[in-house]
Write a structure and sequence with these properties.
Layout: H1 2-37, H2 45-78, H3 89-116, H4 123-129, H5 131-145
């Protein structure tokens, strides 16, 4: 098994990076859609258009990208010699991944609230929420590339 993981490592890494880029695109764009969505009249043509855009982004892009990111990320960390578990960077990276996952699920809830007309969050709330994935992404990239500790 370890020979397979080692031999497949470059492919797994490439697929992981592609999936993470797709997931991050959604995590950065969906809250921006929410910012504009809260400005439109409930049950208007624009409201329904935003509902379709948000649902498709979440279900067709973000959900599959998150699953593929996790699958290939796990395969990468199972590859012998890749991760030094005594280093602190990997643990901070994992924490940031959990934050991204929490953001993903929160966005799914907010999408449902907007679709059902029960949203109570403001445009400002969604603008601030949009920063959490950005900060998490910066932390992850620094941990993986620099490995500061």
């Amino acid at each position: 098994m370890s020979e397979f993981l080692i031999g497949s490592y470059p492919w797994f890494k490439a697929i992981h990076i592609i999936a993470v880029m797709s997931w991050m695109a959604g995590l950065l764009y969906l809250p921006r859609l929410f910012v504009y969505h809260v400005e439109v009249e409930l049950n208007s043509i624009e409201d329904h258009r935003f509902q379709v855009m948000e649902r498709r982004l979440l279900r067709a892009i973000m959900n599959p990208a998150m699953v593929v990111s996790y699958i290939f990320g796990i395969l990468l960390i199972l590859t012998p010699g890749i991760v030094d578990w005594s280093s602190g960077w990997i643990w901070l990276k994992i924490l940031a991944i959990l934050v991204l996952t929490g953001c993903h699920h929160a966005m799914g809830k907010w999408r449902k609230d907007l679709a059902e007309g029960t949203n109570r969050k403001s445009q400002r709330y969604f603008r601030v929420a949009n920063e959490v994935p950005t900060i998490s992404m910066i932390i992850i990239v620094i941990m993986v590339v620099v490995k500061p500790f």
